[in-house]
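Forum: Protein Structure Q&A
Topic: Joint prediction for protein chains with partners

I've read a bunch of threads here and the consensus seems to be that you should model interacting components together rather than docking separate models afterwards. I'd like to see that in practice. Below is the full input, 519 residues plus whatever partners are listed. Could one of the regulars post the assembled result?
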Amino acid sequence: MVKTLNYGKFKLMERSFTNIIDNKEDALRRVRVALLNILEDTEDARRIAVDEKNKTMAIIENLTDGILLLDTNGRVETISLMVESFLKKSKEEIIGIDFFDIIAGNEFKALKDLLKDGGKIKAVQRKEVEVGDNLNLEVTVVFLKTEQEEKGSLIVLHDVTRDKLIEKMKTEFVSIAAHQLRTPLSAIKWTLRMILDGDVGKITEDQKELLDKTYISNERMISLINDLLNVSRIEEGRFLYKQENMQLEDIVDGIVKSSAESLKMKNLKIDIDVPKKLIPEVFVDKEKIGLVVQNLLENAIKYSKDGGDIKIVMEKLENEASFKIIDSGVGIPENQKERIFSKFFRGDNVVALETEGSGLGLYTAKNIVEAHKGKIWFESKENSGTTFCFTLPFAKK
Amino acid sequence: MFKKILLIEDDKFLRELMNKKLLSLDFEVSTAADGEEGLEKIKAEKPEVVLLDLILPGINGFEVLERAKKDPTTANIPIIILSNLGQSEDIEKGLKLGAKDFLVKAHFTPQEIVNKLKSILG
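Posted by a regular:
Agreed with the consensus. Here's the joint model:
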């Protein structure tokens, strides 16, 4: 067939082939340039990504907290350098290893107990554990998740050893200070009492009157130190001691009985209203809840006028026991209601009325009630009376 | 017959005051100013009741209590802690170690302390 083509036609075809090839070559050249450009962009992007990764790694590695990133199988992927010193192992002994194998040693038992839930790690939020020799760590575990998939978990170990030490020193300081203050106060108390009781000879009425007042002053000082001790314990967050199931009615009853003297002194009538059927028990540190009731009752007594009425009402609510104390006393001024639970705060009207009082009673009461997961509040009108209420959740069956 | 009380207290003035009070009520009183002396006197004198302070130089009150309760010759002597410590932990520790009672000095008058002694002596 080709043989039949004449030369002219052949030439024409050749030219058009050449054209096509030229065009193709051109196109290829353009594609090549484009590809090279893309490659260059990718290389740039890769370099940026590597830079970013290095930066992120550098940040993670140099964090002052211990950070461990676990994959979905619980193996360690990435750590910060602090982890090596917390776990007393080198990076090589940690990376790629199952986290629970790393902390299998006895010194990390507390940490393992905290985090191991079956075979898996569980999420915790700022829990303190002691590991090894006096190293106190605050541990947080969060699961890393995107919308589609689990990405493993993140463990954060924060060294709180120093904070613990300071806390311990503060407690020791407070208890030693309290002890040191109480000793001379005890000596004063005992001396005055013995003189007043006539143990060292007869005294005149005038002397007795003065010494009686001195004795009361000294008692005030003793109770102020008790208040301060309580506050310092509250602030350490370890105020509640031993919680047990109790009848709220019994606690209130005991406190009211022990206040009989001061009720009589002001000629106050007290009325206690409890339901016939026992209120379900509450789970409380009975000494501390007693302190709440005592503080509220003391206030009601102190700020009532002579011959007034005080009423206590206890009720069973849906999930909690409620306590209410209603007085017809001086009340709380409107503009000071917000500050009534603040430490050392005392209302203007009561400062004018009574110079004594530490301003710690309601602060203490609020902290105790809230430590029991209860609520405390009040309603008051100046010059007509105050009602303080608190609730405590029922004990779990 | 007068009952014999051992008073272990490092503060001289408190010791004198309590001593005076007890003597005025015809008790026989022996005193010790630190833990070591106290422990020796518990063993040697076998008092009928011990009033024991906790913060003492040298051997502290908790240790005195622990050792006295461990020694079969003194284990039955009732010991009342009379201290100015008074946190729930301290009280529980004292009672667990075998103290008969725990009195916070600043919260009791000498007469009230004597009443406690009498109730224990029967």
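The domain at 63-159 of chain A is CATH 3.30.450.20 (Beta-Lactamase).
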